[in-house]
Design goal:
about 270 residues; 8 strands; eight-stranded mixed beta sheet
Length: about 270
């Protein structure tokens, strides 16, 4: 059983590399706290993108978050890696047998991969504008091709502008917060691309999920993301769909209180 432990940062060994993680401590795996909560960040930011919702989550739960390889405080990869294998390594490092996973965008894809591939490790899901393996052509083909073109031209400003234009449509003016997150992760996109090994496709296996699930859609997200998220919610049994009218692909920046509500609801359902 997961026990109460002190707050701590950790450098966690993963296959051919390492990742930075933070454990809030507090109740987890107990009658009071329920299973620990693990936060999986999107590709448009590192684990700091959870900062606006973190205080409410840590009030009630032991919360673990980490930076995927190349993001934030985690070194860039130097060998092929699997996102779900890294997630499993983080859980194992902290002695977490079973957790609620809150995953945004690429973090949602990793959460779903574990929920389907090793369901005993997952107590509940909070999916925030999630990706999913098996739907990459629908979600990212054109965007990825344009990012590649801009990267070859050395146009980092162009990559940032493209991302904000397509995924940050709910922003107004200069949108400095979203821009800062995107600009900080573009080097990770370029560093990880040669080494990222996609996890097996799970889009057609979402019907196998048998844990409480909340899926959050940002109504101003890219239309293909919204359509795919709607289809995902239909496939996941008893999935609760939450629509955020003022959000795009950055819901923790746009409507943090609503995102925290959705995550806490998934935690409560998993108790």
């Amino acid at each position: 059983m997961d026990a109460m432990i002190p707050v701590k940062d950790a450098t966690i060994p993963v296959k051919d590399g390492e990742v930075w993680a933070h454990d809030s401590g507090g109740p987890g795996g107990t009658d009071d706290g329920g299973p620990p909560l693990v936060l999986l960040h999107p590709g448009v930011g590192d684990s700091r993108i959870w900062d606006p919702v973190l205080p409410r989550l840590t009030e009630r739960h032991r919360v673990i978050r980490y930076d995927a390889r190349g993001y934030g405080r985690s070194p860039a990869p130097s060998a092929p890696f699997s996102p779900v294998a890294d997630l499993t390594a983080v859980l194992d490092h902290f002695g977490v047998a079973r957790a609620v996973l809150a995953g945004s965008s690429m973090g949602g894809a990793a959460a779903l991969s574990l929920a389907v591939g090793d369901p005993a490790r997952v107590a509940g899901l909070a999916l925030v504008v999630p990706g999913v393996t098996g739907a990459e052509d629908l979600l990212t083909r054109d965007f990825t091709a344009e990012v590649g073109r801009l990267a070859r031209a050395g146009d980092i400003d162009g990559i940032v502008a493209l991302t904000l234009r397509t995924s940050g449509a709910a922003g107004t003016g200069a949108d400095a917060r979203a821009e800062a997150h995107v600009r900080s992760v573009v080097p990770a996109w370029l560093a990880c691309h040669p080494y990222h090994v996609p996890d097996p496709p799970v889009l057609d296996r979402l019907g196998e999920i048998d844990v409480p699930c909340v899926l959050v859609i940002g109504e101003h997200d890219r239309p293909e993301v919204v359509r795919t998220n709607e289809a995902m919610a239909e496939r996941i049994p008893d999935c609760r769909l939450v629509r955020l009218a003022h959000s795009d692909h950055f819901p923790t920046l746009r409507e943090p209180s609503a995102v925290a509500d959705a995550i806490l609801a998934a935690c409560e359902a998993a108790r």
